[in-house]
Amino acid sequence: MRRAVLAGVCLQSEADRFDNRMKECEALCVASQIEVVGTVTQRSRSMDPRTAFRPGKVNELTLICEELDADLIIFAHELSYGMVARLRKETGREVIDRTALILDIFSLRARSRQAKLQVELARLNYELPSVAHTEDASQRAQGGGYITRGAGESHTARVRRSAGRRIAVIRKELKEKEQDVRSAERRRSKSELGRVALVGYTNAGKSSLMNAILRYNQREERGVYADDMLFATLDSSVRNITYEGLQFLLYDTVGFVSELPHTLIEAFQSTLDSARGADLLIHVIDASDPLQEEKAQVTKETLQTIGAGAIPVLTVYSKCDRLNSKEQMEGLYVSSLRGDGVEEVLQEVVRLLYPMEEEMLCRIPYERYSLIGEYRNTVRVRILQEENTGVLVQVSGPRVRMRPFKAYEVKENENSLGHL
Questions:
Q1: What is the pLDDT, as a whole number, of residue 107?
Q2: Are 405 and 396 in contact (CB under 8 A)?
Q3: Sign, Cα dihedral of 50, 51, 53, 59
Q4: Interatomic CA distance for residues 181 and 59, integer angstroms
Q5: Rounded to whole angstroms, how far apart are CA atoms 344 and 332?
Q6: SS3 sequence, the chain?
Q7: Rounded CA separation 46/185 (Å)
Q8: Per-residue pLDDT at 362
Q9: Which of 41, 52, 116, 307 is the most exposed place for a label (fewest CB within 10 A)?
């Protein structure tokens, strides 16, 4: 396991959030299987434009790394490529920033082909600008002589061209995979099933809640991967859930963190579409987390960033089995471990997804009998009587889902039984 010193600059404008930033970065280190052996911080109005830390603090950082036998320095901020290069030179240690750390975690967690491609694309976009800082005169190809006329091609140009080709290949493959996903989504949309997406801070308990809902549906064999760590899974998963005769699609999405790097938002657009395209969001909050309010705010800000801020939200507090007593916070409480509160969540989801229920009596011709099968997942149909030309049925469900049956409604002044 690598040994790292965690470094951070406490800016006056962000002093109230600095402790949370450092704690989160330490948790990211644990998720990346890195041991944090020491911490060095500096209070300042601004970062040093050359090395983030002031010169004296850089010397202190170097000495502490030597004393603690640390081979890695991790900054809890996003640094410029010049800062990283100078810090490496002055400390004699490898230096990475928060974005690079998150990319390392994503590389460890990526399982599907799509997730691996998305991570590689994010890393290439992140690292490509640093190429310009690696070039020096010795790396430039010779040129301009009598035989080899021309300026020659620089090492930077070769690396950029190679990376550009790889980025183009990845984007093409991702586009093909996204088209497959869109095709699957179009097939799902034809069923008119409501869409619900689990969102929240990473490790809040989203995947565990999905598994608890699947167990309630007696579909444990189709559970999703869940573990007590940051970014346990990067792939969005979708499952078909049934409650009280109504069905909806439940999506598990990638977790959020504060200041989610733009390179990751760009790379995971297709994954985040699960949240953007939802009819309802379940915001999962870890009830046992002392920083739950700050992390809930991060989730709200991220939803705004990705264009999902206007979607209705159901707040669910997870891991309530870890609480000695429940505070009266607005939302539902669940324990995915024990299954407590899962039915209440499903009741509320169905109520919000399929509001304003109504009931009607319909006479469905046999040539339109397929209508019953087409909408059986979003409305409840009870066959009352078979007739010569069709069937008499009682249909109940959300008003918005009942429209296809309006044309076959039996009017109140009709004596429906007289036609039997």
A1: 82
A2: no
A3: negative
A4: 52
A5: 8
A6: CEEEEEEEEEEHHHHHHHHHHHHHHHHHHHHCCEEEEEEEEEEECCCECCCECCHHHHHHHHHHHHHHCCCEEEECCCCCHHHHHHHHHHHCCEEECHHHHHHHHHHHHCCCHHHHHHHHHHHHHHHHHHHHHCCCHHHCCCCCCCCCCCCCCCHHHHHHHHHHHHHHHHHHHHHHHHHHHHHHHHHHHHCCCEEEEEEEECCCCHHHHHHHHHHHCCCHHHCCCCCCCCCCCCCCEEEEEEECCEEEEEEECCCECCCCCHHHHHHCHHHHHHHHCCCEEEEEEECCCCCHHHHHHHHHHHHHHCCCCCCCEEEEEECHHHCCCCCCCCCEECECCCCECHHHHHHHHHHHHCCCEEEEEEEEEHHHCHHHHHCCCCCEEEEEEECCCEEEEEEEEEHHHCHHHHHHECCCCCCHHHHC
A7: 47
A8: 93
A9: 307
d(C-alpha 214, C-alpha 193), whole Å: 17
Residue 183, φ and ψ in degrees, nearest 5: -65, -45
Query: For the segment 345-400, what is each residue's pLDDT rounded down to a tens digit?
Result: 999 998 898 776 788 999 999 999 988 888 887 788 999 999 999 999 999 887 77
Both structure tokens of 20: 């949370």
Tell me the two tokens of residue 327.
Answer: 């505070």
Q: What is the pLDDT of residues 397-406, one digit of tens each?
A: 877 778 889 8
**Which tokens hold the place of 253?**
């999405």
Q: What is the pLDDT of residues 209-236, one digit of tens each?
A: 998 999 888 755 466 555 555 565 566 7
Residue 136 has pLDDT above 50, yes or no: no
